[in-house]
Amino acid sequence: MLYYITGGERSGKSRYAQNLALQLSETPYYLATSRIWDDDHRKRINRHIADRDQRWTAIEEEKEISEVIKKDTVVVIDCVTLWLTNYFVDTKNDIEKSLSLAKEEFNKLLQREATLIIISNEIGMGVHAATEIGRKFTELQGWMNQYIAKHSHKAILMVSGIPVEIKN
């Protein structure tokens, strides 16, 4: 089963995904895809860690997320934006190569026998990116979001902390 949770920054995506995971399993997994970019980012990560109790098993993987998914588990993958950033930076901002690599990895993820709750951001709904690199990444994010949503069984758009079902 694949759940796709998307929305803007601070829309309640992570809280919703974590609550869903706890409804589905007494011992869910939390897969963090982020690299530590700066002190502010470290604080944000620490806050997310503090939100989870001893029922959770934490996993960190920057790109090859399918490799760390165990059979018959419930896994929150947080998040697509940071996962794509890793590909985008490593390919020196090559949209086509990043998208190809991300789709290839996502297709492997679909083969795993697990319940996946994937969190992403709708960055294209915000302010138009001021830089070329920002606009390129917004395109990459939008295309990958569409690909994930297409393959999801259920999709939720979070708006001001309220889940809006967009696919069931």
Walk me through the structure.
The chain has 168 residues and is of the alpha/beta class. It has 5 helices and 7 strands. It has helices spanning 13-24, 39-50, 80-90, 95-110, 132-151, and strands at 2-7, 29-32, 57-60, 74-78, 115-119, 154-159, 162-167. A 7-stranded mixed sheet has the order 3-2-4-5-1-6-7, sandwiched between helices. α4 runs parallel beside α5. The protein starts with a strand and ends with a strand.
Helix content range of the residues, please?
40-55%
Number of strands: 7
By secondary-structure content and strand pairing, the structural class works out as alpha/beta
Taken in chain order, the helices and strands follow as EHEHEEHHEHEE
| Total helical elements | 5
* Rough outline: globular
| Strand-residue proportion | 15-25%
- Radius of gyration (CA) equals 15 Å
> Runs with pLDDT <50, length 5+?
none
How far is the first residue's CA from the last residue's CA?
Answer: 11 Å
The main sheet orders its strands as 3-2-4-5-1-6-7
Largest sheet: 7 strands, mixed
What average pLDDT do the residues reach?
A: 92
